[in-house]
């Protein structure tokens, strides 16, 4: 391989440094989106906890299959509009819904458990 071939296949240090800066910038953006997702999920779970308490208080089932089906259709449509794989969006929602149902079942179990007696006041 002669010098021209070597320079055509090996990026020079300036190009590499530029690419590394770009990579770092893009990764910072990804980190920001990840942080936003965590905060949004936390906010979503605050609402679903309220739903779980209402369901438990009124003896409603933890899962609502009609609601889940509507959400899947809606989010698949949103995913398509956003150029995100609808299958991925459905799997992601499925994971979240499974966790929500688990929380609702725990809330319902705690609501159904008999209250422990309070120790006498001193």
Automatic annotation (TrEMBL):
Chorismate mutase domain sequence ranges: 17-108
GO biological process: chorismate metabolic process; salicylic acid biosynthetic process
Stated name of the protein: Chorismate mutase
Pfam family of the protein (one): CM_2
Organism: Subtercola boreus
Superkingdom of origin: Bacteria
Keyword entries, A-Z: Isomerase
Keyword Transport: no
GO molecular function: chorismate mutase activity
Record-linked InterPro entries: Chorismate_II_sf, Chorismate_mutase-related, CM_bact, CM_dom_sf, CM_II_prokaryot
Keyword Isomerase: yes
SUPFAM superfamilies membership: Chorismate mutase II (SSF48600)
